[in-house]
What does this fold into?
Amino acid sequence: MPIKNKINELNKWVTKNISIDEKFLSIKKFETGQSNPTYLLSSANKSFVLRSKPFGHLLLGAHRIDREYRVMSALNKSLVPVPKMYGYCNDINVIGSEFYIMEYLDGAHMFDPSLPKCSVKQRYLIYRDKIEILAELASIDIKKLGLENFGKPQGYLERQINLWIKQYRSSQTKNIKSMEYLIEHIPQHIPEEIEKLPACLLHGDFRLDNMILQSKQYPKKIAGLLDWELSTLSKPFIDLSYWALMLRFEKNWPIGGLGNLRNILKVSGIPTEEKILETYLNKTGFDKPKYWNYLLAFNCFRFAGILQGIAKRVVDGNNTGDNGFEVGEQAEPVAILGSKILTEYL
It folds into this structure.
């Protein structure tokens, strides 16, 4: 039964389990996103957001929306901007899948990191805010937020490499030569120095389209960082290098970046990769990592695995977004970029 026909069951669950004095009148799916389906819940007075696991066959261990709910609930006590959490449900009989309900943030949702509709000052302020959020994640008191057992920071890279090789093989639809190169060489060159760094909270998918900007008219601040599905405990620089990698993507890719716009960055208000790293180091007090390019290559490998999972869900007929095929096909150019960066590093 379509989820829109489950509104009565949803209202009954809300009445019994969470403190929302509203009756939902409609539920409408957001067409963005490739992983967990997200819906707008509307009542007579206000809106909320429901996020669920996808329906159908899923890869083992994927789509941990319970972890999303837990980490965002904890971060409501921090300086990291997240929406308010209202309730989590693991009873699939309510709407057909696990779900949680959170605050609806009314603001700008942008996808193009060049921020073409923003002024130079707006771009500067938004990018500054992103760096400050990443610096906050790197220095947050994990124990104070009750997240000390949210992951195992030691050996994060090794576990992630093993996981994404397995996930990639489970969802592989064709042979990608550059991905085979990464699978062979990424595990052999894990930098030992990273293990000496303190543990920090990792978002796991830190990019513009997972953020809501505070105002549609004059956006200059991030109102909420969303999509914490891949969050865990790790070491600093993982989120930062992932974000920097996104900015290296070509503008014409489905998930595009600034790769072919570097010559105009100085007049755009958008900092260069070098400036982003420098600002992060100044705010956190960390030394510049000699293994920066390794982390960029690792994130290419990891993201190509994520994209390949999207490609497989398209084949299986249970993908969430409406441009899943195009996004899934990006796995190969991302792997090619990663193999180029890793070759230069080695």
User: Anything to note?
Assistant: Residues 3-10+24-103 form a domain with the Phosphorylase Kinase; domain 1 fold (CATH 3.30.200.20). The beta strands are 26-29, 38-42, 47-52, 85-89, 99-103, 200-202, 211-213, 222-225, 232-234. Residues 292-316 form the longest helix (25 residues). The CA atoms of residues 19 and 141 lie 29 Å apart.
